[in-house]
User: What shape does this take?
Amino acid sequence: MTQGIAAEQLHSIVTRIETLEERKADIVGDIRDVYTEAKLNGFDPKIIRQIVRLRKLDRAEREEQEALLDLYTHALGMTADADL
Amino acid sequence: MTQGIAAEQLHSIVTRIETLEERKADIVGDIRDVYTEAKLNGFDPKIIRQIVRLRKLDRAEREEQEALLDLYTHALGMTADADL
Amino acid sequence: MTQGIAAEQLHSIVTRIETLEERKADIVGDIRDVYTEAKLNGFDPKIIRQIVRLRKLDRAEREEQEALLDLYTHALGMTADADL
Amino acid sequence: MTQGIAAEQLHSIVTRIETLEERKADIVGDIRDVYTEAKLNGFDPKIIRQIVRLRKLDRAEREEQEALLDLYTHALGMTADADL
DNA sequence: TCGCCTGATAGTTGCC
DNA sequence: GGCAACTATCAGGCGA
Assistant: This one.
């Protein structure tokens, strides 16, 4: 029955991927809709994209800063959850 | 107050896009997880990907066929909703 | 003389790309001409495009099928050039 | 026989387009090869692309300048081929 | 003829 | 570190 089980597993895998991809496609469509709406309200989609990109960079940078801070505090034994 | 309204709109737009992108990233992560799980169960991800791609291609072709048929029927004035 | 050689190489590269792009642009023009001619002969360019697209999709699918078959046979160690 | 002739024409059109597209694809491949070669020789493809783009802009600009010059000279009756 | 929209292309990121 | 998949951008084609 190994064959049958494998086939079943394979089918499950493929199906799950397809479902997820479908949901992804939906979301991409939603994003496009927001850009379209933005355009209709007089906002330049290109600039909106830049803003989104910049904010993402900011977030990444902030997280890096925090990670660095964490690293230092841990190294100095200043962490709250250390050595309990 | 136009300025304020515009700023508000802009903020709404950017926020909504960011939320959607977050959800998209989650789904991409889920897809990756399924591939990882597949690999752990002995399935070659490369083959899985090809299967998914092929099934997608099948769907695309089916849709193209229908679109073509539509195009022909419309071109020939055979459309059901014509001449009402 | 490394600088000089590099400059020469760079020039050769850029020139070759430009020549190829020019040829590409010519071909794109030729394709457009065929569509124009088709239109003059009463064929709807839209339908022609769809036919071309569909035939391309057919080819793609055929190739995908073969690639998949290849992948399976290789995965199962059934390849002719194995174990020599 | 109109049907037959039309079918023949259609086939000719589609075939010609496909041949041209094939040639186009070949050239695109050649261009990619040049970029690959450039990379192997230590040139950054990104920069090469910028150079190509800039030179194209330059050419466009030069052509515009010439067109403008033409316009003026014609307007002033200074063109060599006028009034023959 | 202009604006939109789809398809082609260039750039980026993640995997091997 | 190179390569391939994916994403974002851009240009050409279509419809109003």
